[in-house]
Amino acid sequence: MVPQSPTGIEPIPSIEGRPVYTASGNRLGEAVDLCVDLDADRVTALLVSVEDPPEGMEVGPRGIRVPFRSVRGMADIIVLTGDPGIEAAD
């Protein structure tokens, strides 16, 4: 059971280490963290550690940044919609 805060907002459970897959079933890597825009109160991106990046993919020191709009679902694994626009995460 997830504890409720006094504001009624549920905390985000840890996603670190969850496997991340593209919609076609290819394993992209493991989730590292979420990027949050505190001014807009929304999640903007998912940081993913990539073990074997596809050719031409730029990978930064923290992996890659996947726009959160490209996340189709999150549970024991994370599934993306298609092959999202990805950029290196500094």
The span between the termini is 34 Å
- The share of residues in extended strands comes to 35-45%
Number of helices: 0
Structural class: mainly beta
In the sheet with the most strands, the strands line up as 5-6-1-2-3-4-7
Low-confidence stretches: none
* Topology pattern, helix = H, strand = E: EEEEEEE
Characterization of this structure:
There is one protein chain. 0% of the residues lie in helices and 39% in strands. The chain is mostly beta strands. A seven-stranded mixed β-sheet has the order 5-6-1-2-3-4-7, with no helix packed on it. The radius of gyration is 14 Å and the shape is globular. The chain starts with 18 loop residues before the first strand and ends with a strand.
List the helices and strands and how they pair.
Layout: E1 19-21, E2 27-37, E3 42-49, E4 64-67, E5 71-74, E6 78-80, E7 87-88
Parallel strand pairs: 1-6
Antiparallel strand pairs: 1-2, 2-3, 3-4, 4-7, 5-6
